[in-house]
Write a structure and sequence with these properties.
- 2 copies of one chain form a homodimer.
- Chain A has about 400 residues and is of the alpha+beta class.
- The first copy, chain A, has 2 domains: about 280 residues, Deoxyribonuclease I, Chain A; about 100 residues.
- Chain A is about 40% helix and about 20% strand.
- In chain A, the strands form 2 sheets. Chain A has a 7-stranded mixed sheet with strand order 3-4-2-1-13-12-10. Chain A has a 6-stranded mixed sheet with strand order 5-6-7-8-11-9.
- In chain A, strand 1, helix 2 and strand 2 form a beta-alpha-beta unit.
- Chains A and B meet through strand 5, helix 5 and helix 9 of A and strand 5, helix 5 and helix 9 of B.
């Protein structure tokens, strides 16, 4: 309420929230989020996990007055869950789907079905061009044995590359979303180092909210307490990152998170705490070179570390490609054997009826089933191998470029 | 041979060729292409349909001397087939996979398995930044009843959007590849209109090669003659497009295509004729505004036409989503019915053995098979519907922006 209008002082509050599709009391919470967004009157709102397009339409209808511009990014079977509400006109959009995003057969995790992506919206506020990115990376289901780490690293790398290539004409770059990485994780260091984006939590002049800026906290009634046992304060996995690419400076004046339940209610807005930033953007005399965020020797280490993890994932994927291929070949051999036996029986070579018909046909169906399934998995792991190889090679190229610099 | 070096006069020859993976005499032709590329010494070579990574490695080993820089874009099950050879250092690369690319069950067409994409390489030649794009869009198998037109239009739109968003800091933009569209097709007009790219064939000062610049000609012994019956001269589906985005001008001095068989050989290099361009890039005093290639009222018509085609594809996809969903539900009902009957028989409700065991279990397996298949197809068509909806909405946004301009 005490915030001056952005046209005069270039302030941009930003908010990210998450809504689980199958979660408890979803409708009530969407309602609640709509109320708060209307009351607070942010300039820009980035939402993740709005899986239901109907929820988006409801929010859009409700918020049309204060956020006349909005965009919903469609992708995957369920949807990317990403959407943007803005007080300022959205000039252009682009969606980039990550090439790896978990496994379709891990139904209990379901990330594959969301078609995880990064969405870009281009805005112009007071003559300043903003490239705003919203994203949601693959979840981490088990920190000790994180099978999805290579996929998340590929996503972090593709996110960084996408930002670098698309933001060259922007004055200010903003990234908000659920990155599913702890602040010290290699993926975050890679993303920050390779794009030059800065972390609003680390830079903020004032901070108010959960301790250490955590966004997944035990006191939120929708979080799974057992997962947070090693982290009594919670973890910080939702971020607002930013940089100015031309003759501008960005400063985070204030960062806030929500803390548990909504005011006057018994439930929180979401299972993640929302992050809100007030940014101050100023024109400055000379252009600052902020292409790389980390000093180059450190960046070399980070890229090397990421590349090692991708290589580990690559070996696992190659192993799975091999074993699914072998399974498919075995099933095919069994089928051929059965076909030969059946032909033999038909030709009268085997006297009597050596195979009981029922178990014979059951076995044939089983073999066909295994053949189809193993072939599908083999194709999937072939794609996985290709994308991991591609990322590893890109990282190698990046390392060479870093080392060749004077 | 008479070409002066590009450092002094900014000339850039460009060549695109296609190699079919399962094609006749592939090895011999890869060999032939390597020989020609080494002899001619182009500055930049863009290849499509190099499906085999071994072919790429062989070419790379052979061409290392004259093209020290190269990149192979990995994607899909088979691969994107795209690669680039360059005399100048490749500074950066990015791959964008099209969100729609045919159907996995159309095995005879197989486009889905290639993971069709657009590859970007960034080069700096004499201080000029080149964004070079290489791509291969979905094939057209039947011009009269082109079931893939909506997918190809989504690809053309995504290609145009990708180029617009990533080329903002480039001085010169080049696009080369097999677009699988005739010059007057809506997809080409959309791509050219929305990006401002110009067609080297239309702009070339000198032209030499197949009549009308055709690249798929009946006299090439690898083409299917019956497909080209309505087009006695052949068709032009491989393009070199370009534009200068800042204070530069590009002029196509010369455009050539190969014509049938390779010199001194009985076979052509490829089933498509190669296109070679000599471009002259000059620095000019003031920046020209070339954001849109077509005058705006015409562009509005083109986007409207494309949107109509996408909407037709959307209705077909929704229909298929519905019928596959219904099929899955029917299969599930049959399974439940069978389960009830089996339970009934077990409980001794039905005296005797009403169902022959063999046909009962065969039916159950059939139902499971149909259920799995129909569910898979339903998910696939759900994704298709989402992407077509997303593209249609982006086109609607673009139309609104075009109409609002003064």
């Amino acid at each position: 309420p005490s915030r001056p209008p952005p046209a005069s002082c270039d302030i941009l509050p930003l908010s990210g929230r998450a809504i689980r599709y199958l979660s408890k009391r979803r409708q009530e919470r969407v309602q609640l989020i709509g109320d708060v967004l209307r009351r607070e009157g942010f300039d820009l709102v980035l939402l993740q996990e709005v899986w239901s397009e109907r929820d988006y339409s409801n929010l859009k209808a409700k918020l049309g007055g204060c956020y006349p511009f909005s965009h919903y990014f469609r992708s995957g079977v369920i949807g990317s869950g990403l959407c943007v509400f803005s007080r300022f006109p959205i000039l252009d959009t682009l969606l980039y789907q990550y090439s790896l995003n978990g496994y379709p057969y891990m139904l209990q995790h379901g990330d594959w079905f969301c078609g995880k992506s990064v969405g870009l919206v281009v805005l112009k506020i007071s003559g300043i061009v903003f490239n705003v990115y919203v994203t949601h990376l693959h979840a981490e289901y088990c920190r000790e044995k994180d099978a999805y780490l290579p996929h998340r690293l590929v996503q972090a790398w593709e996110l960084a590359q996408f930002i670098r290539h698309t933001s060259k004409a922007a004055d200010v770059v903003l990234l908000g979303g659920d990155l599913n990485m702890h602040p010290e994780d290699v993926g975050i260091r890679l993303l920050r180092g390779w794009t030059g984006l800065r972390d609003a939590f680390a830079e903020a002049t004032r901070f108010e909210g959960c301790e250490d800026g955590c966004t997944l906290v035990p006191k939120n009634c929708f979080t799974v307490k057992s997962e947070l046992l090693p982290f009594p304060l919670g973890i910080r996995i939702d971020y607002i990152l930013y940089k100015a690419v031309s003759s501008f400076t960005v400063k985070c004046e204030e960062l806030k998170t929500t803390t548990g339940t909504a005011p006057g209610m018994d439930i929180p807005f979401s299972d993640h705490e929302a992050v809100m930033a007030t940014l101050c953007i100023r024109r400055q005399g000379q252009a600052a070179d902020t292409t790389l965020g980390t000093s180059e020797p450190t960046l070399t280490d980070v890229v090397t570390e990421a590349r090692t993890e991708v290589a580990v994932g690559l070996r696992a994927a190659q192993q799975q490609r091999y074993s699914t291929g072998r399974m498919a070949v075995l099933a095919l051999l069994l089928l051929l054997l059965q076909a030969a036996a059946a032909l033999g029986a038909l030709a009268g070579l085997a006297a009597g009826q050596p195979f009981p018909k029922l178990s014979f046909s059951l076995l044939a169906f089983l073999a066909i089933g295994v053949l189809l399934l193993a072939t599908g998995l083999h194709l999937f792991h072939t794609i996985e191998v290709k994308m991991l190889q591609g990322t590893e090679e890109q990282m190698r190229m990046a390392l060479r470029a870093l080392q060749e610099r004077p």
